[in-house]
């Protein structure tokens, strides 16, 4: 489907209105009516169609902004999840490396405890602020 710009929509609407006004003008001229009715009707119809077009464009823009915000929130959540997954894999990888290298338990827990607590604190803070953030 071909997208149309607002200028094209206004031009097309004005062309349609002009054709309609010409037909009504001809009918009224044939029947002996004054043309002031046609001029008033034409002005009100143009104003009405422009207001409708502007409102539709505004609605489309608002939906686009809402969609952009929801996509941004989804991307942020995916990024947070990937970071959490990497932290978990790193901790598990450290455990596997400690077993493979036969590091003593006391020494290894001295390495693993700070990493685990820093990861947990960071992830808890990060996900906690995401839940407290006001929705737009």
Order of helices and strands: HHH
| Main sheet: strands, sense, barrel | none
Q: Approximately how much beta-strand content do the residues carry?
A: under 5%
- Into how many domains do the coordinates divide? 1
State the distance separating the first and last CA atoms: 31 Å
> In which range does the helix fraction lie?
over 70%
Mind explaining what this structure looks like?
The protein has 136 residues and is mainly α. It has one domain (6-132). Helix content is 88%, strand content 0%. The protein is built from three helices and no strands. The protein has helices at 6-31, 36-100, 105-132. Helix 1 (6-31) packs antiparallel against helix 2 (36-100). It is rod-shaped, with a radius of gyration of 33 Å. The two termini are 31 Å apart. The model has no long low-confidence stretch (mean pLDDT 76).
